[in-house]
Design brief:
Distance between the termini of chain A: 68 Å
Largest interface: A-B, 46 and 46 residues
CATH superfamily of the largest domain in chain A: Response regulator
Shape of chain A: elongated
Number of strands of chain A: 12
Strand order of the largest sheet of chain A: 2-1-3-4-5-11
Helix content of chain A: 40-55%
Largest sheet of chain A: 6 strands, parallel
Mean pLDDT of chain A: 94
Radius of gyration of chain A: 26 Å
Order of helices and strands of chain A: HHHHEHEHEHHEEHEHEHEHEHEHEE
CATH architecture of the largest domain in chain A: 3-Layer(aba) Sandwich
Oligomer: homodimer
CATH topology of the largest domain in chain A: Rossmann fold
Structural class of chain A: alpha/beta
Number of domains of chain A: 3
Strand content of chain A: 15-25%
DNA sequence: CGAAACAACGAAAACGGTTTCGTGTTGATA
DNA sequence: TATCAACACGAAACCGTTTTCGTTGTTTCG
C-alpha cells in the first residue's frame, strides 16, 4: 500500500479506502488505485488485518489423535464449513495427553485463533482437570466441545447420543434372539464409553428377558490387549458382540472365526464408528455411524456463530446427534 | 503490557525489555514486572509479534484428502515435529480440486504462514498447471512438496521410491512363482501411479521369464468402479495382484475369495499403503509401507530449515525414502 | 573536579493495515 | 456574496509488540 500510495501520489489512507471501494473516494481514484493493485499483485497482509480487527479468521482444533477415522471426518466437516466462511483451521494433536492439550491450548489462545473446537484427551478425562478450558472461556474465547466432552465446563457442546446408539444396537441383537451378549469397551472415565455401556445395559434391562446374559469386558487402554481379549472370548460362549470401536469389533470377528464360529449365523457383531474397516471387513461389519462430517460441520457452525455474534449473553447449548445403525453382513437381517 | 506499565509507572519499553530479561533493565525492575505479568496472567499477543517479526510460526499444509490413512500419518509426522519447533500447523483440504488448491494457497500466502507443505491434488496433476506454486515460491515462501509432486516447480521435495516399492513387491510375487500378475492402478497422470507402474513393468522385464504374463487395469477415478473391477478379474485368471492402494487390494481379495480362490494359495495379493485395512484384513494384507510419519517429519524438518535459514541460496533437494514390504498372510512366505 | 563510562530507562518508529476526524475545494443556495 | 453541503482526500491514532536511539543520573578515573 505504501508503494502504491507513493506511486500514485496519494495517501495511504486513500489507497486503503479505494481498495475497499469506499464511497468517500472518487470513481477516478478508485480505478487508478485498483488497477495499480492488480498490476503489482497487491495482497493485503492478513496479520496486520488480524492485529487491527482483533480477529484472526483462524479456528483451533485440538483432538487426541488424527489417525482415526472418526476424527478425520470431523476435521473434514469443520474444514469444509469453516472455509466457506473464510476461516482456516489450525490442527493440534494432544496425543491423548493432558500436558500436550494444555500446551496446545496456550499456544493458540494468545491471539492465534478466534475460537476452539476440541475433543478431550483420555488423559484429561482421567485427570478430570479442566482448568485450561475454563481459563480459555474466561478469556472470552468461544469453545465448542465435541464427542469427548465434560459437564465441568460451560460451553457449547455437540455429541452423538452414544447411549441411544448402544441401545439401538443392543436391541437389534436382542431382536435377533441373541441371549448371551458381550460388550467390549474401554474404561469408564471416557465419557463415550460410559454412555455406551449405559445404553447397552438399558436395552437389556428393557427387554425383560431373564434368559439374556450380559457380559462386559473393559479393556485397559485404547490399544488391543490380545490376551485379555482371547481369554474373555474363550471363557464366554457368546452369541453376540457389541464393541465400542472398529478395531475391537474386527479383532473379535477374526478371533471368533478362528474359533470356528460363523458370523453372523453363530455370532452377531456390531461395532461403533462406521469407518473403512467396517465397510471392508469380511463379513462387512454392522456399525453405528457417528456422522463425523455432520458433527464437524455443526461444531464449526456453532463456533463461528459465537465468534461473530455481537451479544455477550452466555447461553450455551448442547446438540445431540442421532447415531445411525448401518446394517451389514455381521448381523442377521 | 500497557496495563502493567501504567500500574508500575514505567514505560512500555521497559516492560517489554523486562519481560525478555534484557540486561538493560535492573534486576529490581525486572522482578517487579515479571511478578506483575504472572499476577495478571499476561500472555504476549502472537499476532502483534508476528507482525513485528514477519514470522508467524505457522506452517500451511495442503493435502487432497484427510480421510486417508497415508495423509493423516503425514500430518501427524508434520505436527509432531513442527510442535517441537514451536510451529503450528494449518491444514487445508484441496479435495482433489485444482480450484480449491489455488484458493487455499492464496488464503494462506498473504502472511498467515511461513511456509507450505503440500501434496498435489489429482486435478492439478491432470491440468498440469502449477502457476500457483510458482507464484508462492517467487514470493520467497518456502515450499516442500511430498508424495504427489511435480518437476515443474523448483522446491524441496520428498517422496518414497514408488518405483522401487512396486519393483520389490512384484519381485516378491515373481519369486513365489506367480506367472500371471495383475496391477490394479489409477490413471498415469498421478505421479505415484506412473512410478508404480514403471516399477511393476521393470520387475517383470528383469525377471526374463517369458512365461510371466502381466496385466494392467487402470481405474478411471480414485473411487471403486465395481463393474470394471469384476470384469477384469473375471476375464483374467490371475495368480497374483498388486494394487496401488488398500481399497483396491481389499476389494480384489474379497472378490477373488467370492470366486472361490484361496488367498494366498491360489492368488497372492499385495497393496500399497500399510494402513489399518491391510492390518485387519482377512487374510491380512501384505503391504508396501510408505512411512507417512517419517515423511511428514522430514518434510517439516526441511521446511523449517528453509524458513529459519538466513541465506537465500536457492538449493533444492529431493529426498527419496525407501518403502518397506510388510509381509503378511496374503502372500506366501 | 571534570570528563568519560555506564547503568537504567523512555520516546518514538516500525510492522501493515483501518478508521476517525479533520480540511481544503467545489458548487449550489439564500 | 456570504454560507453551507457535499465531495475527495490526508493526518494521525490505533492494534500490541520490538527495537533503536537517545536521555538521564550515578560512578569511576585521571
Amino acid at each position: 500500500m505504501k508503494h502504491i500510495a507513493k506511486e500514485l501520489d496519494v495517501s495511504i489512507s486513500t489507497v486503503s479506502k479505494a481498495l475497499k471501494n469506499s464511497e468517500e473516494i472518487s470513481r477516478d481514484t478508485k480505478e487508478k488505485v485498483q488497477a495499480f493493485a492488480k498490476l503489482y499483485n497487491y495482497k493485503p497482509n492478513n496479520i496486520a488485518i488480524s492485529l487491527k480487527n482483533k480477529r484472526t479468521k483462524n479456528i483451533g482444533v485440538i483432538i487426541p489423535d488424527i489417525v482415526h477415522h472418526f476424527f478425520t471426518t470431523v476435521i473434514r466437516g469443520i474444514e469444509k464449513f469453516a472455509n466457506t466462511k473464510g476461516y482456516n483451521v489450525i490442527v493440534c494433536l494432544s496425543d491423548e495427553s493432558f500436558d500436550k492439550e494444555v500446551i496446545n491450548m496456550e499456544m493458540l489462545a494468545n491471539g492465534s485463533i478466534d475460537g476452539f473446537i476440541m475433543s478431550l484427551s483420555s488423559d484429561t478425562q482421567l485427570k478430570n482437570d479442566y482448568n485450561h478450558l475454563k481459563e480459555v472461556t474466561e478469556q472470552g474465547i468461544p469453545l465448542v466441545l465435541f464427542d469427548r466432552i465434560t459437564n465441568e465446563v460451560e460451553c457449547d457442546k455437540i455429541i452423538i447420543d452414544d447411549q441411544l446408539g448402544a441401545y439401538v444396537a443392543t436391541k437389534k441383537l436382542l431382536d435377533q434372539g441373541r441371549k448371551k451378549i458381550a460388550l467390549i469397551t474401554t474404561q469408564d472415565y471416557l465419557s463415550v464409553s460410559k454412555a455406551r455401556t449405559e445404553g447397552f445395559l438399558k436395552a437389556i434391562a428393557d427387554s425383560e428377558d431373564n434368559a439374556v446374559e450380559k457380559l462386559i469386558l473393559k479393556m485397559p487402554s485404547m490399544g488391543m490387549d490380545e490376551s485379555l481379549f482371547t481369554t474373555f472370548l474363550d471363557g464366554n460362549d457368546v452369541d453376540a458382540v457389541l464393541c465400542v470401536n472398529e478395531i475391537f469389533a474386527i479383532s473379535a470377528m477374526r478371533y471368533l472365526k478362528l474359533k470356528g464360529k460363523r458370523i453372523p449365523e453363530d455370532v452377531s457383531c456390531i461395532g461403533f464408528t462406521d469407518g473403512l474397516l467396517s465397510k471392508y471387513a469380511n463379513p462387512s461389519l454392522t456399525a453405528i455411524a457417528q456422522h463425523g462430517d455432520e458433527m464437524g460441520k455443526m461444531a464449526a457452525e456453532m463456533l463461528i456463530e459465537k465468534i461473530e455474534s455481537e451479544n455477550e449473553e452466555e447461553t450455551y447449548i448442547t446438540k445431540i446427534l442421532e447415531p445411525t445403525l448401518i446394517e451389514r453382513d455381521s448381523t442377521i437381517n
